[in-house]
Amino acid sequence: MDIDIINKKPETLLKRTSFQAKMIFEGKTPSRTDLKKLLCSKLGSKDALTVISKILNDYGSERAILHGYVYDDEDSMKDLESKYVMLRHLSKAEQQAEKEKAKAAKQAAAPTSGKKKK
Question: What is the C-alpha R_g of the chain?
Answer without folding.
Answer: 18
